[in-house]
Design a protein that fits this description.
The protein has one helix at 2-26, and strands at residues 28-30, 37-41, 45-50, 59-70, 77-85, 95-99, 108-118. The protein is an alpha+beta fold. The longest helix has 25 residues, at 2-26. It has a four-stranded antiparallel beta sheet, with no helix packed on it. The protein has a three-stranded antiparallel beta sheet with strand order 5-4-7. The protein contains one helix and seven strands; from the N terminus they run H-E-E-E-E-E-E-E. It has one domain (2-118).
């Protein structure tokens, strides 16, 4: 029994070490696909500011996350990569944000990448 507890603790420590490595390697700013957009990423999410394009285009901020996420009705969870999307927005120079946390009780994840997607 004691060996099983020690093995489980080692697996948990390795998992947290892996997430910490993703945090250290993955923090910083990201590149945006559409022109005139600036994307800033932090540990748990990202924000984008896109200048008006005069065409009424619609964009979405896409944040790639890694960690614990809701995988169905509570209390089902999964661990791994997932994507978080902002609400569609028309660029007007205002900042739009979305994050990896707040997507259910107990969700803990870090942002690994972020970009702005044009969809029409």
């Amino acid at each position: 029994m004691k060996q099983a507890i020690v093995a489980a603790a080692r697996v948990a420590a390795a998992g947290f070490s892996g997430i910490a490595a993703v945090v250290l390697i993955g923090s910083g700013s990201a590149q945006a696909a559409p022109q005139d957009c600036v994307v800033s990423r932090d540990l748990f999410g990202a924000s984008a500011t896109c200048q008006p394009d005069g065409g009424g285009s619609n964009y979405v901020l896409k944040v790639e996350c890694f960690g614990l996420y809701a995988n169905g009705p509570f209390p089902l969870y999964g661990v791994g990569p997932y994507t978080s999307l902002s609400y569609p927005f028309t660029p007007d120079g205002q900042r739009i944000s979305t994050g990896c946390t707040g997507m259910g009780p107990g969700v803990v994840a870090v942002a690994t990448n972020a970009s702005v997607i044009y969809y029409g």
